[in-house]
Amino acid sequence: MTETTPRALDLSDPATDPFEVARAAAAVIAERTGVAQHDVALVLGSGWGQTGDLIGETLATIDNADVPGFAKAAVAGHSGVMRSVAIGDTGRRALVYGTRTHFYEGKGVRSVVHAVRTAAAAGCRTIVLTNGCGGLNPAWRPGTPVLIRDHINLTAHSPIEGANFVDLTDLYSPRLRDLAREVDADLDEGVYVQFRGPHYETPAEVQMAKVIGGDLVGMSTSLEAIAARQAGLEVLGISLVTNLAAGISDQPLDHAEVLEAGKAAAERCGRLLAAVVAKI
User: Which positions fall inside the Nucleoside phosphorylase domain (predicted)?
Assistant: First the structure.
């Protein structure tokens, strides 16, 4: 958030209405892009950066720091801009976020889910959440995209405030997963487990995740998905397995490996997601 952001739009202030900040952000996006609304939003995690280029022509680019509630990218391999992208020749627009705010950055859950709420305020009805993650299935080699069927939220937090009870039974849309398999019939699916981070999980924690039903481990996505459901968005989640999780492989983990796996899989993942977005 820039120093000139009014206090009324400060997400860290408990008195601030986070949905009001989202509406203010959407108004800036509409002004900068010249369109009243977008149709689909995408949050691009590690390994998914080329997707925006493959969806269609980028018609406008906005620096995150120029939009209320947003900040520059804090993670290597992410882009600190958002883009308005034409979805082929359909006349529809995608709002593509080149980065996300992670829970481990310490900015609070409101900041983590602000992009999701802004997408809803900007008119989107569908959001695609992507990430780079550790895989628990040895058959999923680095570079394998996996559909998220469900999640386990181990952050001990929720983006929903107050007595607002939201059903998460079919949070990750079966309809959208079916659309994705029309593009790539070989796509597998699994349960994503979000840890707090920023440290990687220990081998014992990975085994715990496996015992409680997890297939993928990472540090994002589940809080965003919950906020998306609250906002009425249909959610598609896709993980890119960038490494085998700790203890599944005997190799040590490091972020450079994550980035390298993402680069190697970038074209396949980008084309997959571009084709899915065109079908939504």
Answer: 40-278
Residue 137 class from Cβ within 10 Å (0-12 exposed, 13-18 middle, 19+ buried)? middle
Q: Are 149 and 172 in contact (CB under 8 A)?
A: yes
Which residues on neighbouring strands pair with residue 189, listed in sequence order? 147
CB 93 within 8 A of CB 87: yes
CATH number for the domain formed by residue range(s) 7-279: 3.40.50.1580
Among 25, 2, 23, 18, which residue's Cα sits nearest to residue 82?
Answer: 25
Q: Where are the domains of the chain?
A: 7-279
- What's the distance, CA 260 to chain centroid? 19
Q: Is 100 annotated as a binding residue?
A: yes
Q: For 175-185, write each residue's pLDDT tens digit.
A: 999 999 999 99
Confidence class for position 1, pLDDT limits 50, 70, 90:
very low
pLDDT tens, position by position, 25-73: 999 999 999 999 999 999 988 767 777 788 889 999 999 989 999 987 6
CA atoms 50, 148, 100, 219: torsion sign: negative
pLDDT tens track for 238-276: 999 988 777 676 666 666 666 666 666 777 788 888 899
Q: Is there a binding annotation on residue 98?
A: no
243 annotated binding-site participant? yes
Residue with token string 């999640």? 151
Binding residue per annotation — 220?
yes
Helix runs in 43-136, H state only: 51-55, 109-121
Q: Is 242 annotated as a binding residue?
A: no
Instruction: List, by residue number, the catalytic residues.
Output: 201
